[in-house]
Structures are given as structure tokens and as C-alpha cells.
Design brief:
The chain is of the alpha/beta class. The protein has four domains: 112 residues, Urease, subunit C, domain 1 (Roll), CATH 2.30.40.10; 112 residues, Diaminopimelate Epimerase, Chain A, domain 1 (Roll); 82 residues; 200 residues, TIM Barrel (Alpha-Beta Barrel). Helices cover 30% and strands 23% of the residues. It contains 19 helices and 22 strands. Strands 1, 2, 3, 4, 5, 20, 21 and 22 form an eight-stranded mixed sheet that branches. A seven-stranded parallel sheet has the order 6-13-14-16-17-18-19. Strand 11 and strand 12 form a beta hairpin. Helix 3 packs across helix 7.
């Protein structure tokens, strides 16, 4: 990681040269002149009027320049926590999950909490939710809580449940489920029930450390900005502390978690905070949940799950609370970005937005967003357009879910992961990864959007072949459209004069490599505001 002094750059023009501009009709040599953190010139050679003004020359190392990549739906502190926790991504059995937790326990004093994330029962031979017995027997002296990969379910061992006061008499809360059998809780807690396991709270200094670690990690992957999808007040304080100290390398468009009620109300009174710390922090949106996740059958469907006819999923926010949030946000100038995965969850949000527009407190200029918009009834697509609701989508959800999503959805799969359908109706799609649910590498998302295939190139025709995007469309999702969804389209997402000098440099041309090579592009340099925040 290479950092350049902020003070050094103020008022001192710098030129980046020795690389190529990556574009659909063929790469060409490029020179980028940065002045006062913005692009002052983009062309093929240094113009005469700048020749004597340049203070520094930096090499692009023969790389290919893209507009700074943006992840429009991510979770910085959760990624930082995952980087410090037991990594369960890719585990192929419950036994492997238990073994990793046991190995971590052997390294820690008895009584220390063990956390982890990344298990997915759909990847196991049984595909059934686990029971805590094996985990409790293997790790009896450490409280353990292991989150499912989507963050919408967790597995706790016996000690963690005991310390949290969870017994056979504990009732499932509204918006959540405690999975139980004749012996009592199985240790699996879904959505709002996860809060029953009382993990130690994170301090602001803990959050600063984790956010810093996660920011450096994604900067090395080429990300110049992320939209942090649901933070509490302590996370905001940590972000501000890092930005004020000049230790936040990427730009963050933050969404207030609606569950942090006291902070939300204070912030609604104060109003949006835009482009703080030279544009590194913005707080002008609110994150709400309509439902849970498809993998844990918490996504809210209009009809029962095809593989679980006794459930339609979960509604996580009461109707009256949603009405209040939408009206208060609209009046205070805040955008509302609602997690909605199931077709009923998406329809429910559209109905609340329509009602707010009907009574005159909201119009389409508010750019309200549907985070995920994963399963949509074909009858509801036009409502997105009419109401101006932006579908914020994550391409790798499609390729991760494809082995089991048809079992959950049946014929409804035809309305799922429908990026092209939205685009053809004229809606821009901000794209992201939802890390750490998925890997934060943006080139995995670009590849998934272009091919709808896994990394082995399967299925040959693509899982959703009618929804494939062109490389240009996919890149727009991670640049211009992401910027538009954050009201930043006049300063971010393009390589144009007057825009922030944010760009990503790769070792090969994104537009020219075979599609199966897109995930293997290496980042040579990540630049934010003209400052090199990563150099390989």
C-alpha cells in the first residue's frame, strides 16, 4: 500500500502517464492531469499550457485506466470483522465448519467469544440447517456464534445460548425465527432472532481498526468508493475519525440503519451531510429491511417457497413504521434504500413509495432505491419505472445462488436477477457485491453480469442468458450508475475534466480480454482524488 501526502498535492498539478485508456472501441494512450484532487485534463499527451505547471510525473506502469470502480452495496465493518474472524466461506460440510471453530478455540483462552462468518448449508451434501450439538461438543468452553454467509442467520453453541439466556421457553421475536425441535433450540437463529445472542459490543476503536483493514483490502482490489449499506452511529463515528485523520482511503456513501432509532431521529432533524472531508464521506440515505434472505428462506414471497410450502418468508419492518420512515425521510431530504429480495418484499416497498407519492410527500426525484431487487413479479417491473425506484443489484448473487435458487423459486426464477429487464425499461442499475456476503472483488461482479456463469464457465449458455449485459453496461453499473444512485453523477463515475480524480488501473484491457479472463484482471494502481492509495 502506497500513500502520498495530502498536503503535498494541494495546488500542485500532477500528471499520470505511460498507460492506456480502456474503452469499448479500443484502448488508446492516455495522460491524466490532476489539480486540486480533480481531473484537469484527460487526453493522449500533455498540452503545452500545462507543460511548465506539472510538479510531479507518475507512471501508470503500462496499465489500462478505468473510471474509479464503485461498489454500490457493501458492508465495510462487517468485512473487517470477517477478516478478523473464522473464515467459513467455501466450507463444504458442517463438519468442516466445526473443525475451523475448534481450531480457533485452541488458540484462545477459555471463555473468549469466537465469531465467524460464511457457512452456507446449500453447499453441503445435506443442504439442511445444522444443529448445535456437534459444535457444542467440539467447543464447550468458548461461546461461539457463526453467521451464515448472507448475514441473515447465525449458529450459536450451547454456551453462547446459555450466556444469552436463550432456553426452550424463549419465543421467536417479530421478524425472526428460532429454529427448534423436540429438544429445544437447534442453535440456528434467523433474521431478528439473531439479536438474542448477546455478543460483546464493538467499541469505536474496534470499528476503526476493522474499517481501516477492510478499506485497505478493497482498495487493493480496485475500489475507489463504496456505499455502506446500513451503519449505526458508532460506525459513523469511526468513519469520521478515520476521515478526519486522513486514514480513510476510499470514499463512503453511508446509509443510516433504520434500526438505530435514536440516531436516525437526530440525523433527520440535522439533515443530510454531503461531501465531508473533501468528498470522502456522505450521509444522506437510510437503510430499511422489508424481508430477509433467499438462502435462509427469509425473503418474503407472494406464494410459499417451492421447497418449503409452509412458509412465505418474513416481513421485517411493520407497515406503520415504513410509512413514518418514508415520510420523514422525504421531508428531510434523505433517500430511502430498502433491502428487498422476495417478490412480495419488492411489491410491498413499491406500495409504500406509491402511497407517499400519492399524498404528495415524495416524487421520483428522491431516487429511492431497492437494495437487491432480486426476485420481482413481472407484473411489478413497470412500477419501478413509474415511481422512479432504482434497482440496486449485485451480479454475483445470481451466480452464487444458481445451484439452488430454482428449487426455492420454481417458475418465479424467470423474474429473478433481471438486470437487462430493468435496463430495457430505462432504469440505471447501481451494482455492487454485498461484501462480505460475496467476495469484494468488483471484477467478479463484472464477469457475473456479462456471463451469468460461475468461474468454471458453467452453465455454458449462462444461468440467466436473457439477462446478460454488455461489458459497457456492466461497467456503467460499477461507475456512472452507482454515482447517479448517490446523487454524485456530476463529480464521480467518469474520467472527465472537473470530476474527482478517481480511477482504477489494471494490467490488461477489460474490454479486450476474453470474458473468462475478467475475474483474473490484476489491479496495478488505485487512485482516489489523485492520491495513490494502492500500487502493486
Amino acid at each position: 500500500m502506497i500513500w502520498l501526502s495530502w498536503i503535498l498535492w494541494v495546488g500542485q498539478p500532477v500528471v499520470f502517464e505511460g498507460g492506456f485508456l480502456s474503452q469499448p472501441d479500443g484502448a488508446k494512450p492516455v495522460v491524466l492531469i490532476v489539480d486540486d484532487f480533480k481531473l484537469a485534463y484527460v487526453g493522449e499527451s500533455i498540452p503545452k499550457e500545462w507543460a511548465n505547471k506539472i510538479q510531479q510525473h507518475l507512471s501508470l506502469d503500462g496499465g489500462y485506466v478505468l473510471p474509479g470502480l464503485i461498489d454500490a452495496h457493501a458492508h465495510l465493518s462487517s468485512l473487517g470483522n470477517a477478516l478478523e474472524s473464522v473464515d467459513l466461506v467455501g466450507t463444504s460440510s458442517y463438519q468442516e465448519v466445526v473443525a475451523r471453530a475448534k481450531n480457533r478455540a485452541a488458540q484462545l483462552p477459555k471463555g473468549t467469544w469466537i465469531t465467524g462468518r460464511g457457512w452456507d448449508q446449500n453447499d453441503w451434501e445435506t443442504t439442511e440447517f445444522p444443529h448445535h450439538d456437534a459444535l457444542s461438543q467440539a467447543v464447550p468452553d468458548h461461546p461461539v456464534v457463526l453467521k451464515r454467509i448472507d448475514g441473515h442467520a447465525s449458529l450459536a453453541n450451547a454456551l453462547a445460548m446459555k450466556l444469552s439466556g436463550v432456553t426452550s421457553d424463549t419465543k421467536s421475536p417479530d421478524g425472526g425465527v428460532i429454529l427448534s425441535n423436540e429438544s429445544g433450540p437447534t442453535g440456528v437463529f434467523v433474521d431478528d432472532a439473531m439479536g438474542l445472542i448477546l455478543e460483546p459490543p464493538m467499541s469505536v476503536s474496534d470499528l476503526e481498526r476493522q474499517i481501516s483493514k477492510a478499506s485497505d483490502h478493497v482498495a487493493a482490489l480496485g475500489l475507489t468508493a463504496i456505499h455502506d449499506a446500513g451503519i449505526d452511529e458508532n460506525e459513523w463515528i469511526a468513519l469520521k475519525n478515520l476521515a478526519e485523520a486522513g486514514k480513510l482511503p476510499i470514499r463512503v456513501y453511508a446509509m443510516i440503519a433504520a434500526t438505530d432509532h435514536k440516531w436516525l431521529q437526530r440525523q433527520l432533524k440535522q439533515g443530510p451531510l454531503i461531501d465531508l472531508y473533501d468528498g470522502f464521506l456522505t450521509l444522506r440515505s437510510i437503510k430499511v429491511y422489508s424481508d430477509g434472505a433467499l438462502g435462509s428462506r427469509g425473503a418474503w414471497l407472494k406464494q410459499p417457497y417451492s421447497d418449503a410450502p409452509d412458509t412465505v418468508g418474513l416481513q421485517l419492518t411493520p407497515d406503520n413504521e415504513m410509512d413514518v420512515i418514508v415520510e420523514q425521510a422525504a421531508r428531510a431530504g434523505f433517500q430511502v434504500n430498502t433491502h428487498a429480495i422476495g417478490d412480495r418484499g419488492n411489491q410491498w416497498v413499491l406500495q409504500h413509495v406509491a402511497q407517499a407519492q400519492k399524498i404528495g410527500v415524495l416524487d421520483a426525484s428522491a431516487r429511492f432505491r431497492m437494495e437487491h431487487a432480486q426476485v420481482v413479479d413481472p407484473a411489478d417491473f413497470d412500477a419501478f419505472v413509474k415511481l422512479g425506484v432504482l434497482p440496486s443489484m449485485q451480479p454475483t448473487h445470481c451466480t452464487s445462488d444458481m445451484p439452488w435458487a430454482p428449487k426455492r423459486l420454481g417458475a418465479r426464477t424467470t423474474g429473478a436477477y433481471a438486470w437487462r429487464t430493468f435496463i430495457e425499461k430505462g432504469l440505471p442499475i447501481p451494482m455492487g457485491s454485498d461484501f462480505p456476503v460475496e467476495q469484494p472483488n468488483p471484477f467478479l461482479g463484472l464477469y457475473a453480469a456479462v456471463t451469468t456463469q460461475d468461474l468454471d464457465g458453467q452453465p455454458a449458455e449462462g444461468f440467466r442468458p436473457t439477462q446478460k449485459l454488455s461489458r459497457t453496461e456492466a461497467l456503467l453499473g460499477f461507475t456512472e450508475w452507482a454515482a447517479y444512485s448517490a446523487f454524485q453523477e456530476d463529480r464521480k463515475g467518469k474520467l472527465e475534466k472537473g470530476f474527482w480524480a478517481d480511477f482504477t488501473v489494471t494490467d490488461r484491457d477489460y474490454f479486450a480480454v476474453p470474458s473468462h479472463e475478467i475475474p483474473r484482471l490484476n489491479v496495478l494502481m488505485t487512485v482516489v482524488g489523485g492520491r495513490v492509495i494502492f500500487r502493486r
